[in-house]
Design brief:
The protein is 76% helix and 0% strand. With 455 residues, it is mainly α. Helix 5 packs antiparallel against helix 12 and helix 10 runs parallel beside helix 16. The chain is globular and about 60 Å long.
Length: 455
């Protein structure tokens, strides 16, 4: 991939001055929009079901956009390589807005789910192009700081999103949550467009219908995996086995060769990142569950533990962007991601500590915060490492491969954890929590091992 103006000057020192400022503000707004909608849907879905019905399709509302985004990420790559990120970003924002409007005006759950799927088309394209813009619009030394800005765009909705969405749903109605974001999308695109449209492609990429077909099959399988993991549809064991088989067979063909075997170098970097994300998000919902059911904490107070971890996530990302302030501890990108990965594993043990009566609850919360800190450091560091190691023209393909592997890993592990938890729940919540969280710790350790092979 080439740019019509070349790489940005290395002398640039600020994300917020000149054209860099416009791009930074636009990327922040885009990421905030996607994050706000993702978190707001969790808040308003009960109201959506009350209004439209379709309780049996509850899980599909969350699985559909994730699954469809796998397809759109793959489809966006040759487009970005050929024409630059601008057309794909425009199409992604348009699809995301169309999905929002479809959800907002949905007369039935079927139409609502169609809107969520269209949102997924936009999410995938936006995700790929954001990383490509970071690679092309900023000099190398500003990329980590740009990733910190994107992290803050996810952290802020985690803090204020559920409250705003709940207020809108109560005062205006759940549809208002989907009506407000399109304006933000237009503003975000306007801020970035002046610079992004000058980031050109090399014009040499050919469309790969075979890869898009594979991506479509994997997307369907991931959706079925999420649905079957809820154990609420007839024949769910068969669906679970078939979807795991399809994902295990086809998904490795959509990512960097050697990713699923943790081959040394870039494949191992992608594998380690995805394993950490799968472990963290696979355990995330069980930590507040343990605090409520085992420790007797209120739901609101348990939610504050997750909010604190979101702030810690931002702190980890900030540390990666400012390694000079921490001396030699974070001197190299590999050390930053490695230490972050170890912190994630430490944080995962919070789900086990919650079961130990003599461990103070504040220590459980602190431990989970350490995990959030580690995730912020590891996710930002691995993204920067991937962009730094990508050759000119490889940014889109490598970013799509990384995000696809993340989506497959997270969806798969969450579904497996759901099945294991439900299967063991009859023996008591403590054994079920121990099994799921303990397995996530093992997955996290595999992530640490994979990242050590990346250097």
């Amino acid at each position: 991939m080439t740019t019509s103006t070349g790489r940005p000057p290395a002398a640039a020192t600020s994300l917020w001055r000149g054209e860099h400022g416009l791009v930074t503000a636009g990327l922040f707004s885009l990421a905030f929009m996607v994050a706000f909608e993702a978190l707001a849907v969790v808040t308003v879905m009960p109201a959506v079901v009350d209004d439209l019905g379709g309780l049996s399709l509850y899980a599909v509302a969350f699985g559909a956009p994730v699954a469809v985004s796998i397809y759109s990420r793959t489809a966006a790559v040759p487009w970005v390589e050929r024409s630059g990120p601008a057309p794909a970003l425009l199409a992604g924002v348009a699809a995301f807005v169309a999905g929002l409007l479809l959800c907002a005006s949905a007369p039935s759950m079927t139409v609502f789910l169609a809107g969520r799927a269209v949102q997924g088309l936009g999410m995938g394209a936006i995700g790929v192009t954001i990383y490509v813009v970071v690679a092309l619009a900023y000099p190398d030394h500003l990329r980590a700081r740009a990733m910190t800005v994107l992290t803050s765009a996810w952290m802020l909705p985690a803090v204020v999103g559920p409250g705003i969405a709940g207020w809108l749903a109560h005062v205006v109605g759940w549809r208002a949550v989907f009506w407000v974001a399109p304006l933000l999308a237009v503003v975000s695109l306007a801020l970035t467009w002046r610079v992004v449209r000058r980031l050109g492609g090399d014009g040499s990429a050919a469309r790969s219908g075979r890869r898009e077909l594979l991506a479509g099959c994997v997307a369907v399988a991931v959706l079925l995996l999420a649905v079957s993991g809820q154990r609420e549809v007839p024949g769910w064991p068969v669906l679970l086995i078939l979807s795991v088989a399809v994902v295990g067979t086809l998904a490795p063909r959509l990512v960097l060769p050697g990713t699923w075997s943790a081959r040394r170098g870039l494949p191992s970097l992608v594998a380690g990142r995805s394993l950490l994300a799968a472990a963290y998000f696979g355990a995330e919902s069980y930590v507040p569950l343990g605090l409520v059911e085992v420790r007797g904490m209120s739901v609101a107070t348990a939610g504050l533990v997750l909010t604190a971890a979101a702030f810690a996530w931002f702190g980890g990302s900030w540390a990666v962007a400012h390694p000079e302030r921490l001396g030699s501890l974070l001197a190299t990108p590999g050390r930053r991601s490695g230490l972050g990965a170890l912190a994630v594993v430490v944080g995962l043990t919070a789900g086990l500590l919650v079961l130990v009566p003599w461990v103070p609850t504040v220590l459980v919360a602190f431990t989970w915060g350490v995990g959030g800190l580690g995730m912020g450091a590891a996710m930002s560091a691995t993204t920067v490492q991937l962009l730094d190691r990508s050759g000119r023209g490889e940014e889109a393909a490598n970013s799509a491969a990384m995000q696809t592997n993340d989506a497959v890993g997270e969806s798969g592990w969450i579904a497996v954890g759901s099945v294991v938890f439900a299967a063991l729940l009859h023996t008591g919540i403590e054994p079920a929590l121990t099994a799921v969280v303990g397995a996530s710790v093992v997955v996290g350790l595999l992530g640490v091992w994979a990242l050590r092979r990346a250097d």
